[in-house]
Design brief:
Keywords: Membrane, Transmembrane, Transmembrane helix. By secondary structure, this protein is an all-alpha fold. The protein is built from seven helices and no strands.
Length: 130
């Protein structure tokens, strides 16, 4: 069962499992365990999929049931939804470039640099006569 206190501890460690394992305190361990951590993480991922309309109606209903059965109160459910929206905003700001577009950008940068270099040489030394 996910309680508000468990969720706040999850949020305190920013949902980072490595940080939780390395830096957890005894009082936090007595409140939340690794299983609860995983449930919160999975629920947030599922809510994020629902928010982006990437799931079927059947899966959506299963997730809603799972949220209701794993949450202590309506407040916890709303906290989960708010946190999932924050994660979504974070992911939207992240730009992912494919290797092909990186190659194209590098070629364009090289060409631009080459022509700027040629322009500087032309301005300093003039046009070479053959």
């Amino acid at each position: 069962m996910i309680t508000k206190q468990k969720f706040l501890i999850y949020k305190k460690y920013k949902g980072d499992l490595d940080l939780w394992i390395r830096d957890r305190r005894k009082k936090d361990i007595s409140i939340i365990d690794d299983g609860d951590w995983q449930v919160i993480s999975e629920l947030l991922s599922d809510i994020l999929l629902i928010e982006n309309n990437l799931v079927s109606d059947d899966f959506r209903n299963k997730v809603i049931q799972s949220i209701k059965s794993n949450s202590e109160s309506e407040e916890v459910m709303s906290l989960l939804k708010v946190e999932a929206k924050k994660l979504n905003l974070t992911h939207e700001k992240t730009k992912i470039y494919s290797p092909a577009s990186n190659l194209l950008l590098n070629i364009l940068k090289w060409l631009l640099g080459y022509f700027i270099f040629r322009l500087i040489i032309y301005v300093i030394f003039g046009y070479p006569s053959v």
